[in-house]
Design brief:
The protein has one domain: Rossmann fold (3-Layer(aba) Sandwich), CATH 3.40.50.300. Helix content is 43%, strand content 17%. The chain contains ten helices and seven strands. A seven-stranded parallel beta sheet has the order 3-2-4-1-5-6-7, with helices on both faces. It is globular. The structure holds adenosine-5'-triphosphate and magnesium ion (MG). Magnesium ion binds next to helix 1. The site of magnesium ion (MG) has 5 residues, from helix 1.
């Protein structure tokens, strides 16, 4: 099982959107996927409860109560949707039990400030400090060709962080979330442009997970 922690303490950064879309994509590749919803708002769990039959199966788990679900289903991928405000011991624990940390960053000054603090905190966590956890950032709700995207890249460069890609701001995500879907559950004719933002994330995962483990 490969565990991806999707985290940024800033509320609304795009964590649940990235987590649910990534989960549905992997499920569409015939992978067993569980989303562990660490957020008391239960956005990911609610998304799953809206998910219609007939689409690639993603299972859900809640902290504490559902470790049995994970053990029995033996997913290839566990995607952990972190809550806003995650810091300190809780962050430490989640990082330690993850293989990779994916940080969505939106483009306001407030998001940058909160993310800078978060990245500084991450850098103090032992497995990250020692380079034993993959860490990457994705721009969230930002078109790659805009000034906002350049601002984001300029903000991240001195932090020596990989900006994998920019996930565009699109109503497709909003509508998909409402319907328990992802952009990968939608027809090519509608979603192809939005799909094109994602391959760097998949390639990053591919580089981290040996093929025989998948
Ligand atoms: N790429 C996108 N395009 C358009 N809207 C988006 C995109 N990503 C997220 N959103 C919207 O932005 C809002 C916040 O996104 P999301 O819930 O994924 O963030 P979050 O980091 O999980 O928030 P929280 O901290 O509250 O858990 C939601 O209304 C979501 O639909
Ligand atoms: Mg969320």
């Amino acid at each position: 099982m490969f565990t991806i922690l999707v985290a940024n303490p800033k509320g609304g950064a795009g964590k649940t959107t990235i987590a649910t879309n990534l989960a549905a994509f992997l499920a569409g590749k015939r992978q067993r996927v569980v989303i562990l919803d660490m957020d008391r708002q239960r956005s990911a769990a609610r998304w799953l409860s809206r998910r219609p039959r007939g689409f690639p199966e993603v299972r859900g788990a809640l902290p504490d109560t559902d470790t049995k679900v994970i053990r029995e289903y033996a997913p290839q991928w566990l995607i952990v949707d972190a809550p806003a405000g995650l810091h300190g011991a809780a962050l430490n624990d989640l990082v330690k039990s993850a293989d990779a940390v994916l940080v969505p960053v939106s483009t306001s000054a407030f998001d940058f400030e909160a993310t800078a603090d978060f990245v500084a905190e991450l850098a103090t966590i032992k497995p990250i400090k020692e380079g034993r956890r993959a860490l990457a950032v994705v721009g969230s709700k930002v078109d790659g060709r805009t000034v906002a995207a350049s601002d984001l890249d300029a903000f991240l460069a001195p932090l020596s962080l990989d900006v994998l890609t920019h996930i565009r701001d699109s109503q497709l995500y909003v509508h998909a979330a409402r319907d328990g879907l992802s952009i990968f559950d939608q027809p090519r004719s509608r979603a192809e442009e939005a799909w094109s933002d994602w391959p760097p994330i998949f390639e990053w995962l591919q580089s981290l997970v040996p093929a025989q483990k998948r």
